[in-house]
Amino acid sequence: xxxxxxxxxxxxxxxxxxxxxxxxxxxxxxxxxxxxxxxxxxxxxxxxxxxxxxxxxxxxxxxxxxxxxxxxxxxxxxxxxxxxxxxxxxxxxxxxxxx
Length: 99
Prior knowledge:
The chain is α+β, with helices and mostly antiparallel strands. It has one domain. 34% of the residues lie in helices and 13% in strands. The protein has helices at residues 16-28, 34-44, 68-77; strands at 10-12, 51-56, 64-67.
């Protein structure tokens, strides 16, 4: 497991599991009790990860698996929102001075 360099800008990558889960949520809406199951998936899925796949904005080909708690700390330090974490935009991260 690798750690994140605070001086670099990272973004979260969408995994196959993310895509399958979104498809399941949409697909369950077509069934009678599917709304409740979709709601359950929406609530439980974000908490089910232990690792997050991220990439450096400068090197999009390199994929790094990091712990979810490290990614959450990085997001808070760089003021990256929940929905903005998937966008690879240069300059969206605020560089924090190390003391």
